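Moderator note: this is an archived Q&A kept for reference. The question asked for a predicted structure of one protein chain; the sequence and the answer are reproduced below.
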Amino acid sequence: VQLQASGGGLVQPGGSLRLSCAASGRSFSPNGMAWFRQATGKEREFVAAIGRSGATYYADSLKGRFTISRDISKNMGFLQMNSLKPEDTAVYYCAANRPFSAWYPEKHTTYQYWGQGTLVTVSS
């Protein structure tokens, strides 16, 4: 099972980016999918998560600016980021939870599979 994150880049403050996460692997269909981020010198933090039912969870500080979605048929997850701020600069990681396993959306330890990360830089 592999996760491939993409879509990061340099964007000006106030701009938008859409991150994608492709999950591959024989018959792999994640339970929950999530995004975490880690800024230089800081701990990894939860951004957003989505379950197979479509239920979504967000870090309180990001509600209203970020939107998580997924296409189960294509085994893909997405993170739409709007009104980006310099403090959103970080490496963003996608994560997936094994099918039929316990899932605690905001806990990074609940995710067995991780992508390599994609760098988002918000700067003028």
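Archived answer notes: The longest strand covers residues 17-24.
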